[in-house]
Amino acid sequence: MKHYRFSRLSLGWQIFIGLLAGIVVGMIFYQNHTAITVLQSLGTIFLRMIQMIVMPIVISCLTVGIANIGDIKKLGRIGGKTLIYFEVLTTIAIILGLIVGNLAHPGSFIDVHKLQSTSIASYMASAKTASHTGFWDILLAIIPTNIFKSIADGDMMPVIFFSVFFGLGLAAIGEQAKPVIDVLNTVAEVMFKVTSWVMKYAPIGVFGLIGMTIAQMGVSALLPLGYFILIAYLTMIIFCVVILGIVAKIFHLHYWKTMKVVADEIILAFSTASSEVTLPRLIDKTQKMGVDQGITSFVIPTGYTFNLDGSAIYQSLAALFLAQAYGLHLSWAHQFTLLLVLMVTSKGMAGVPGASFVVLLASVSTIGVPVAGLTFIAGIDRFVDMGRTAVNVVGNSIATLVIGESEHALDREQYEHYLAHYHEAKG
């Protein structure tokens, strides 16, 4: 008789077990402050370890990748193509949220006066800071004055900006740059090894994060807004399967096989409600799928900031939900205004704490929804955040392969082979 150890389970199954255990423990220790503190600490340890390795991986991989590309014109083409792709897909996501919101009318079944409100003071503070951010402020924020401060603050876009220029500088000096490139390649390999160690703690981190959420909010917080949560998740599934499935088909990608490869990362993103925890592994896996290092190390960190498809769906759907709950009729002109506002604010808020909720906070006032209405959905924001984060990861995985294919920087033979032999390669 065989004895199966926990370590023989795939990471995805370990995380799933941690998720279920966290839900049960969270229900048992509902409103128990000692248990909440312990669970929160277990989750925070995992998030901090991920944050510890993200920047070294982004800097080393992106710098080497850009140095290998070398040609600034080619880099400009890749960058322009990536940003256009992100804008198109997030706009489609916003439109899909508006269509579903108009068809399903999730807010019409809610008595907003009977809902329990939740404090949004922290979001208000973030929105107040972000509301003064215009185009030039956003542009200037991308350019670092002190790269070490940007690294310390975990500010992704300035780090990407610096790494791109550093990589171009290395390419410009030719053979002299080889020792630096070798060092950075070694750093990347070391950090990927460290990532594999950190991921062994992932099930415990997931257990703590979901347990803390359930212990704080309780399952009862989901019940009054259950229909809205259901509609939000169904819309996200439609986007992933239909929209991204069509995109994959257009670029001759194997959608379901690719999803099987990144399944662990999707589960991890869903469990932790953090895209950041999947970034190192997505960079590694997309390279193994045959995407050029320069493409994958540029597209994924940039997508982490700009390609937030799940968040775009949530923001448009939640805005309509609140308007319907307050009995406000939104004309097509109002909804078109909302679309334009979300297209801008969702990019401008990148990097703001609780970004999706802050974008919603900054946008609903343009269609006449009382800001106080957001207090009624703040309690379920974490639960919806889990779904939208998973969608963001799916979107960025497909985006990397699409940009790679469009630039003829996807090794088709390696892609086909890796998908076919993924489990053997993983083992």
How would you sum up this structure, described in words?
This protein is an all-alpha fold and 427 residues long. Helices cover 74% and strands 0% of the residues. It has helices at residues 11-28, 33-69, 72-104, 121-130, 135-142, 147-153, 156-173, 178-198, 202-217, 226-250, 255-261, 263-272, 279-288, 293-306, 309-325, 332-348, 355-363, 381-406, 412-420, 422-426. Helix 14 (293-306) packs antiparallel against helix 18 (381-406). It is globular.
Keywords:
427 residues, mainly alpha, 20 helices, 74% helix
Global mean pLDDT: 83
Sheet/helix structural class: mainly alpha
Helix content percent band:
over 70%
**Spans of at least 5 consecutive residues with low confidence:** none
Instruction: Please tell me how large the radius of gyration is.
Output: 22 Å
Tell how many strands the DSSP assignment holds.
Answer: 0
Oligomer: single chain
Quickly count the helices.
Answer: 20
Main sheet characteristics: none
Q: What is the succession of H and E elements?
A: HHHHHHHHHHHHHHHHHHHH
Cα shape: globular
Write a compact overview of the structure shown:
The longest helix has 37 residues, at 33-69. This protein has 427 residues and is mostly helical. The chain has helices at residues 11-28, 33-69, 72-104, 121-130, 135-142, 147-153, 156-173, 178-198, 202-217, 226-250, 255-261, 263-272, 279-288, 293-306, 309-325, 332-348, 355-363, 381-406, 412-420, 422-426.
